[in-house]
Design brief:
This protein is mostly beta strands. The protein is 14% helix and 50% strand. The longest helix has 14 residues. The model has no long low-confidence stretch (mean pLDDT 91).
């Protein structure tokens, strides 16, 4: 079984391997920096992305992706988040939970 230190090492690895995000809004994909990383009280690791489209009209966030330091896709999620005003944005969060199981 993994020790508590091993689990912490995996969380540290997650904090350091994710380098940036890509967001698809209205069919256009652009690179976005990671806004914040956080260790939640329940042990999960959260990665936040601030999505603020530079459009004058309504926008739909269609996909959010995380990439590692080697520019390889690490995680992705299809979405349909509608923003109705140019001043709207979204703070998007990926949450990772580490569970050890015997199989």
């Amino acid at each position: 079984m993994l020790t508590p230190q091993a689990i912490e090492d995996f969380k540290d690895f997650l904090d350091t391997i994710i380098a940036y995000a890509q967001v698809t809004v209205n069919g256009k994909t652009e690179r976005v920096r990671i806004h914040r990383r956080e260790r939640l009280k329940d042990g999960r690791v959260a990665v936040y992305i601030n999505i603020t489209p530079e459009l004058q009209t309504a926008a739909t966030i269609q996909k959010v992706q995380l990439y590692n330091k080697n520019k390889q896709l690490w995680a992705e999620k299809a979405e349909k988040i509608e923003l109705s005003d140019v001043q709207e944005g979204a703070l998007y969060r990926f949450v990772f939970k580490f569970i050890e199981q015997e199989v």
